[in-house]
């Protein structure tokens, strides 16, 4: 990888000793009416973390205050502090699970947590704030319940083994939080409240989100440890359909760094792969359709974001081999074509590109055809190598590049291919270090094969659960090496659950992630009135009645078919009535589908701005705006009823005007409301590009009105 260029290696034993931080692995928390006190359980001199619950001060003292009458609780660490409507809350780890060791350093999984309010009561909140505070709290609890968060008291889990070996000796004396790879520290915002370096170095830990599994094996008389670590990026983090593509900083959705680690008696080997969304501007927002429409944002500078993304990737990983597994026809095909176009236009010598239509090539459960893809990758995989270091640091192999794999979700197809690449490297390592013979494979050893396949299948399920809400598809192939009928049924169930979760629940989950990561920061003024809190908006009950009516009508239709009526004429009449009611309910549900989707209600610094659109009738006479369509000769004053041009464009334009009326001061404070021009419109993707005059300069604002959700950009 690029970070290792010009670096010298040291023994891992030397580095492991330096990893040790002055952080206790157990604490006692004392809960008093005026204070929260945290005492580290360590030998010798110790310091105490004191939180003043009234003034919200945080400081360290050398002596333990009077703790008579305190409620005591054993905790395993501090995740951080979150600000909600009621004030600050302390989030602590109440139990942990030991996953295994890397380099003799223990790795733990967060098992249970507790959220402790600084305030002693909620008397300062009104009834609306109490309701909204409880809702915000439930969002944080949902994030913490999502598998899986990991940490270590003595090992920097945010960095790959290779990066740790190539950094200066002084680096290892820096507190964990200060030296951690910020891309993967999920409690970075929560720990920003601790500004005292002594607190940072003694009481707080960086937490990663992703997957960790470590297992000890014995093959041919050789004992070794095998494991996988996946680190999910905090940048552009979110849920499957609401967070896609790239942002203006070159960060992509669902970016995950996956490291395979093999620990022998005197050698540690590491192999890194990455995954991430197709690195261009695109959206696929839920609208109750099984496969929502994919739309490329045509007015965005795709090449600039693409360039920024791979500049960062090259810095961390060196050469990049891009594997695209999307379909090469339809909407996925257009997305893949854009990806290839950006690659070819970039003329970046550090990049290689291979597209492989996974579904077409492996149709009919012909997963053996993946060998076609693997054959195209072998030469570059051998060229990139893997990282290996002996205990005394005298013999090394360096990994100089990574495979970056993606499909549309970067989950199911991606998992299968990453597993194949990891398997080939592991076989090479075991053969090279004489654990297995050169004519043998992982599958030659039942225990080894079982462990490898299940670790990678568990990795697939966990990453999928975090992004899509369910386990991964196609994991029967990862676990067993072949597709099965039961696997197809399981995929069907997971697909159905994804549909339900992504359409009806993911807006709430996305809001929770944005609060947890600090993309949205709650104001104490929220909830002063019923409408002043963004989460006050809920789906109208009249819309919820539509799917209920549809289910009841369909059930009655089936009942009438199965249970005969007294006369044939009566049975036909009842069946036709309930059939018509079912069809009507389905039609109305489709028509109002945008109102039924649970969309995020909070702003996000990472995702594009998202807004529920108001009805176009709300324009009325409140905000007179003149819009000119270039080339079409169409002029519209919002106070008039002139309706010429494409009806789809007119509908999108009306909705855009509503948004401008409500938010023009926020995004364009010096705008002239009488100088707004429509420069382009795509009826297929519902994309509107507006030019707004602000201080004698025209600024471009793009609105992608897809599924009642706004994507806002400003240039």
Automatic annotation (TrEMBL):
Q: Which UniProt keywords apply?
A: Membrane, Transmembrane, Transmembrane helix
Q: Kindly give the InterPro entries that the UniProt entry links to this protein.
A: AB_hydrolase_fold (IPR029058), SAC_dom (IPR002013)
Q: What is its EC number?
A: 3.1.3.64
Q: Where are the transmembrane segments?
A: 543-563, 575-592
Enzyme class per UniProt: hydrolase
Tell me a GO biological process for this protein: phosphatidylinositol dephosphorylation
Pfam families tied to this protein: Syja_N
Where in the numbering of this chain does the SAC domain appear? 140-469
- Does this entry carry the keyword Transmembrane helix? yes
Q: Which reactions appear under catalytic activity for this entry? A: a 1,2-diacyl-sn-glycero-3-phospho-(1D-myo-inositol 4-phosphate) + H2O = a 1,2-diacyl-sn-glycero-3-phospho-(1D-myo-inositol) + phosphate; a 1,2-diacyl-sn-glycero-3-phospho-(1D-myo-inositol-3-phosphate) + H2O = a 1,2-diacyl-sn-glycero-3-phospho-(1D-myo-inositol) + phosphate
Q: Which GO terms label this protein's molecular function in UniProt?
A: phosphatidylinositol-3-phosphate phosphatase activity; phosphatidylinositol-4-phosphate phosphatase activity
Q: Which domain of life is it from?
A: Eukaryota
GO CC terms = endoplasmic reticulum
Q: Please give the name of this protein.
A: Phosphatidylinositol-3-phosphatase SAC1
Q: Which organism is it from?
A: Rotaria sordida
Organism lineage string: Eukaryota, Metazoa, Spiralia, Gnathifera, Rotifera
């Amino acid at each position: 990888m690029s970070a290792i260029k010009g670096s010298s290696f040291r023994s891992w034993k030397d580095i492991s000793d330096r990893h040790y931080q002055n952080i206790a692995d157990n604490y006692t928390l004392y809960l008093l009416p005026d204070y929260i006190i945290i005492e580290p359980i360590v030998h010798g001199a110790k310091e105490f973390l004191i939180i003043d619950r009234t003034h919200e001060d945080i400081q360290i003292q050398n002596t333990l205050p009077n703790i008579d009458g305190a409620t005591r609780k054993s905790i395993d660490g501090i995740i951080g502090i979150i600000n909600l409507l009621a004030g600050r809350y302390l989030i602590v780890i109440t139990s942990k699970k030991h996953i295994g060791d890397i380099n003799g350093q223990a790795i733990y999984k967060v098992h249970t947590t507790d959220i402790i309010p600084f305030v002693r009561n909620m008397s300062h909140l009104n009834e609306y704030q109490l309701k909204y505070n409880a809702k915000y709290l439930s969002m944080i609890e949902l994030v913490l319940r999502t598998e899986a968060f990991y940490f270590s008291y003595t090992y920097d889990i945010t960095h790959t083994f290779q990066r740790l070996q190539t950094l200066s000796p002084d680096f290892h004396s820096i507190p964990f939080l200060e030296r951690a790879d910020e891309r993967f520290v999920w409690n970075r915002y929560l720990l920003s409240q601790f500004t005292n370096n002594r607190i940072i170095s003694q009481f707080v830990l960086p937490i990663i989100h992703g997957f960790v599994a470590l297992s000890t094996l014995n093959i041919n008389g050789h004992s070794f440890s095998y494991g996988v670590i996946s680190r999910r990026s905090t940048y552009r983090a979110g849920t499957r359909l609401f967070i896609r593509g790239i942002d203006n900083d070159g960060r992509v959705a669902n970016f995950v760094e996956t490291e395979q680690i093999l620990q022998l008696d005197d050698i540690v080997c590491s192999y890194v792969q990455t995954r991430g969304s197709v690195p261009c501007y695109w959206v696929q927002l839920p609208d109750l359709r099984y496969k929502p429409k994919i739309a490329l944002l045509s007015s965005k500078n795709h090449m600039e974001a693409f360039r920024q993304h791979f500049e960062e990737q090259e810095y961390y990983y060196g050469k990049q081999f891009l594997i695209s597994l999307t379909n090469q026809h339809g909407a996925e095909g257009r997305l893949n074509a854009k990806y290839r176009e950006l690659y070819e236009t970039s003329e970046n010598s550090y990049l290689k590109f291979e597209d492989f239509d996974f579904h077409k090539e492996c149709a009919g459960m012909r997963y053996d055809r993946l060998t076609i893809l693997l054959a195209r990758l072998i030469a570059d995989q051998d060229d990139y190598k893997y990282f290996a270091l002996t205990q005394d640091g005298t013999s090394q192999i360096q990994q100089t590049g990574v495979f970056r794999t993606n499909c549309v979700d970067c989950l199911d197809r991606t998992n299968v291919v990453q597993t194949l690449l990891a398997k080939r490297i592991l076989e090479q390592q075991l053969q090279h270090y004489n654990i297995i013979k050169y004519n043998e494979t992982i599958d030659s050893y039942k225990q080894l094969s079982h462990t490898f396949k299940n670790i990678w299948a568990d990795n697939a399920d966990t990453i999928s659960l975090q992004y899509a809400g369910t386990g991964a598809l196609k994991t029967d192939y990862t676990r067993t090496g072949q597709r099965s009928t039961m696997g197809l049924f399981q995929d069907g169930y997971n697909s159905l659950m994804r549909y339900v979760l992504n359409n009806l629940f993911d807006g709430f989950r996305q809001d929770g992630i944005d609060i947890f990561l600090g993309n949205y920061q709650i104001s104490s003024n929220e909830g002063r009135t019923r409408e002043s809190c963004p989460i006050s908006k809920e789906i109208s009950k009249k819309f919820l009645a539509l799917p209920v009516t549809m289910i009841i009508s369909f059930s009655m239709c089936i009942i009438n078919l199965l249970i005969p009526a007294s006369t044939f004429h009566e049975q036909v009449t009842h069946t036709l009535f309930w059939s018509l009611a079912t069809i009507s309910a389905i039609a109305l549900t489709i028509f109002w589908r945008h109102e039924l989707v649970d969309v995020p209600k909070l702003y996000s610094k990472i995702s594009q701005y998202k807004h529920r659109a108001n009805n176009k009738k709300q324009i009325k006479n409140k905000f007179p705006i003149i819009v000119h369509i270039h080339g079409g000769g169409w002029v519209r004053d919002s106070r008039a009823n002139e309706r010429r041009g494409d009806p789809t464009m007119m509908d999108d334009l009306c909705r855009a005007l509503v948004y401008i009326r409500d938010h023009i001061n926020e995004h364009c404070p010096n705008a002239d409301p009488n100088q707004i021009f429509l420069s382009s419109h795509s009826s297929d993707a519902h994309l509107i590009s507006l030019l707004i005059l602000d201080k004698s300069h025209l600024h471009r604002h793009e609105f992608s009105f897809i599924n009642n959700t706004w994507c806002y950009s400003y240039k």
